[in-house]
Amino acid sequence: SFELTQPPSLSVSPGQTARITCSGDALSKQYVYWYQQRPGQAPILAMFKDSERPSGIPERFSGSSSGTTVTLTITGVQAEDEAVYYCQSADPSRQSVVFGGGTKLTV
Amino acid sequence: EEQLVESGGGVVRPGGSLRLSCAASGFSFDDYGMSWVRQAPGKGLEWVSGINGNGAKTGYGESVKGRFTISRDNAKNSLHLQMNSLTAEDTAFYFCARQAEGLDAWGQGTLVTVSS
Chain B: residue nearest A41 by CA? Predict the structure, then answer.
């Protein structure tokens, strides 16, 4: 089955670097998208096609890919970055969209 | 600026039906595929269904296949989700989202509660 695995939680101090991973066997062939969801708010797109940053997302957010793992990196974490981060990819065999379980980032 | 506004949520009894709508504005609606994504209280995101720009292609998550139907009315810039045979496991916030490079625009969601 098409699954995306994320660590449930990550805690970093302000100014440190946060690295959130998303793993899945299909990720060597499929792009990953990242969403940030603050409490009580709708998700927003934080990264697309593994490492492309949408307009409005701060430069401290970056993405990278290596084999079957994709990483969202936040360099110089700020208090406002505290949120749950979800990775997402596509399952072409089922023509469906799959989300990871989410990583709660605590700053 | 693109805007998506969901409506139609509420409380429904198990086995009942509900129709959600999403009103789109600020972009050329028929140029984009659209998706419904849900989130049970305190849980993660789950993709429910998607539809391409002209409505010819649709897809569903395994948990809703055969019970939910997605549709769109491009003349009215609206997206719909017909939900039948609802169970308690369908209780969630339902978001509509625009499909571009990822889901790049989201509504604020509408709450569906399935309870007797």
Answer: B108
